[in-house]
Each structure stands twice: as C-alpha cells, then as structure tokens.
Design a protein that fits this description.
Strand content: 15-25%
Oligomer: single chain
Distance between the termini: 36 Å
Number of helices: 3
Mean pLDDT: 80
CATH architecture: 3-Layer(aba) Sandwich
CATH topology: Trna Endonuclease, Chain: A, domain 1
Amino acid sequence: MSGKASRAKGSRGQCMAANLLRDRDWIVDQITGGIVSHDFTATDTNGRTWAVEVKNCAGILPAHKTQAMEQGKARRLPWLLMNKISGSSSWLVQRQGMAPAVWGEKLDSTNQKTASQAGKPQRFFELSEQDQV
C-alpha cells in the first residue's frame, strides 16, 4: 500500500474510532494524525483523559500496545489502544488498568449497514467478564 493510501486508511480508522467514543459520550479532542505522538486524546464520562492510539490494519500486534503505552507515558496520560478487528465492524479496545473489551457497531435497521457505512454515529457493546475468558 502506498504512503498516501496508508495515511488515508489510518485517517478513516481514526474518524471511526473517534465517532465510536463520541457515541459513548466521550469528548474527543482534535485528531493529530499520530505523526509525532498518539492519534488523539479523549475524555471519558468520568473526566479521565486518555492518549488514544488507533490501528486500522489486518493484524493486532504486541507492538501496537507497546507504542500506545510509550505514547501515553510521554504525554503523562493513561493509554487507550483501539484495534479494528479485520473483516468485522468491531474494535478491540485496550485501556491502561482495565480489561480488554470488544466494541462493535450496531446495524442501521433501515438498510442493514453498520453505522459507519451508513454515515451515522456508532454504538458499542462490551463483553461481560464471563465472556472475556
């Protein structure tokens, strides 16, 4: 994939991830593009601000988590890593000090597309502790 196409894919992933957080009532700050540091910061409903790293690629690699951890440390913020799960409308969400969760988009009932495909805000779900085993 060319550099331009890779950046466009990354940008699309960042927009989808930001929308997923916004739909959960998080406040998302300006997207930085991840050139120098994390992709963006987001503040959860408890007022905690996170350094967010987004990966929109086929594999979920340990290096992604390492990168998110380093960037959070550099910004003196807890880290949050969002990996798009290839071939699905779901995301693996890993947060410092919390169990990983899978967040997915709901289907738009009018045309059976995911919310991002339909251009609408995305919803999420989390696995219960029992499902995470």
